[in-house]
Design brief:
There is one protein chain. The protein is α+β, with helices and mostly antiparallel strands. The protein contains eleven helices and 27 strands. The strands form six sheets. The chain has a six-stranded antiparallel sheet, with no helix packed on it. Helix 6 crosses helix 7.
């Protein structure tokens, strides 16, 4: 039996703003020692899966490769790169069709989300083994979570009787109101729909053929027009956009008659809000989850998360049940009871076209990162890191000059036609409209402090002349 992990790595994670942004969404957030995406990959490996397939946005390719590159034993990976979000229906259809082409139709697909938290991996493996057995018999399997509260944020799966064993699904129901959710909880016959699935590639394609033939036909056209390079499938924007925007639940699972639920033997969280992030940490005696050096006086049930460019001391006094998330460019203070409404903040920022919706404080690029440390009229200070062997594009600016000081590592700074080896403590000046490039020639990360001076300091004032990553 061949088992393939299929990890769906999408979503904006708006309710986890300001840590999660469009350019750095929830799967790439660290919870514990590793990102949620890495944890999902390792969860599949623990189940004995061989290869890996990741469905993600094309703009997150280098972030995904960074995660894989940091793993001790990364699996052989195929990347399906979406030009825009299109929901789980098309994502799973494309993955299943590619699975048949690349492996075989009887391959068991373990479909995982990249933004879930499952602390007990051994218990997850036990549930997955049960799902594998059902999948090889032709079943479409959904992992059901035993509800711990009448939550209105999840879809539910109903079964015929109370049991801890796998059984056929009676029906899927959408997110209920509170009273209905309380009724579901009282019966014991309902599970939360985890959004994790298991089936053979042939079985799910047959289900698409029966219940969503137009979606399957559109997915086939999209795959036929894809371009493959270095283990990544790039989809054409036009053909990809012709696929319907629909979930796998609506497209197939609610209509199919061979769906089984495997009750989870593991603890689970979709990490969908800041209280759920807090719940994933071990609280102190007062129920607080915050940095060890924080000063908390008359404070209970409060979550504090600090992501700054340097050490920052946080003190709380006389506050209760708050969420405080501090990043270099944004600060969120919310009561836990209002944490589900963080998306409203994001919506307002979108209306204002504020870059805090899209770009995180530390912006990741294929070559490394940059972060704005200080900005006022006519100048901006940045911290730039470049990975070993990587380089920025050969570029120039119309409206700003730049001053560079290397503080760690070694590199080559090209200014005009001249290349300058630059070591820690050395300074280079890049005049207005002069072409320039930075390359890390050392074995460690290169760190540079950049001071921009000019009338306009926007990121769009870049003219790329040549680029390793195809952006020129």
């Amino acid at each position: 039996m061949r088992v393939l992990s299929v990890v769906l790595s999408g979503g904006a994670g708006s309710r986890l703003w300001p840590a999660s942004r469009q350019a750095f969404p929830k799967p790439f957030m660290k919870l514990g020692e590793s990102t949620l995406l890495q944890q999902a990959i390792e969860r599949g490996q623990a189940c004995g899966t061989g290869d890996l397939m990741i469905v993600t946005n094309k703009d997150h390719l280098f972030l995904t490769k960074d995660v894989l590159g940091q793993m001790v034993d990364p699996p052989q990976t195929t990347l399906l790169l979406e030009p825009k979000g299109r929901n789980t229906g098309p994502a799973i259809a494309l993955a299943a069709l590619q699975c048949i082409r690349q492996y075989s139709g009887d391959t068991v697909m373990l479909v995982l989300s990249a933004d879930h938290l499952v602390p007990d991996v051994e218990a997850f493996v036990a549930s997955a083994q049960q799902a594998f057995r059902l999948a090889t018999k032709g079943a479409l399997v959904v992992f059901g979570i035993n509800p711990t509260s009448p939550d209105t944020g999840f879809g539910y799966v109903e079964v015929a009787k109370v049991s801890r064993e796998a059984q056929p699904v009676k029906r899927f129901v959408e997110k209920p109101d509170l009273q209905t959710a309380q009724e579901y909880l009282a019966t014991g016959r309902y599970y939360w729909n985890s959004g994790m699935f298991c089936f053979t590639a042939d079985a799910i394609v047959a289900a698409f053929e029966k219940y969503a033939p137009e979606l399957l036909a559109a997915a086939r056209r999209t795959l036929d027009s894809a371009q493959e390079a270095n283990g990544a499938m790039q989809f054409d924007l036009h053909s990809f956009g012709l696929q319907p925007d629909i979930s796998i639940d609506y497209a197939v699972m609610e209509a199919a008659d061979n769906v089984h639920v495997v009750p989870a033997k593991f603890s689970w969280s979709d990490v969908g809000s800041w209280p759920s992030v807090a719940h994933a940490h071990t609280p102190d005696a007062s129920g607080n989850t915050m940095p060890s050096d924080a000063v908390a006086i008359d404070t209970t049930g409060t979550h504090v998360q600090v992501d700054s460019h340097g050490p920052k001391l946080v003190a709380t006094l006389g506050v209760h049940d708050l969420v405080i998330v501090d990043t270099p460019d944004a600060l969120l203070v919310a009561h836990k009871s209002s944490a589900q409404e963080v998306k409203k903040v994001v919506d307002i920022l979108k209306e204002r076209k504020h870059e805090a919706v899209t770009l995180p404080a530390v912006v990741h690029r294929p070559w490394g990162t940059y972060a704005a440390l200080k900005e006022e009229d006519s100048y901006k200070v940045k911290r730039i890191t470049v990975k070993p062997g990587e380089s920025l594009s050969l570029q120039y600016h119309h409206q700003r000059a730049e001053h560079w000081v290397v503080v760690r590592g070694r590199g080559i700074v090209q200014i005009g036609e001249v290349e300058h080896e630059t070591l820690p403590g050395q300074y280079r000046y890049i005049p207005l409209r002069e072409k320039h490039r930075l390359t890390n020639t050392g074995q460690e990360e290169l760190v540079l402090i950049e001071v921009q001076c000019g009338d306009y300091l926007g990121e769009d004032d870049i003219v790329r002349l040549a680029d390793t990553y195809g952006r020129a």
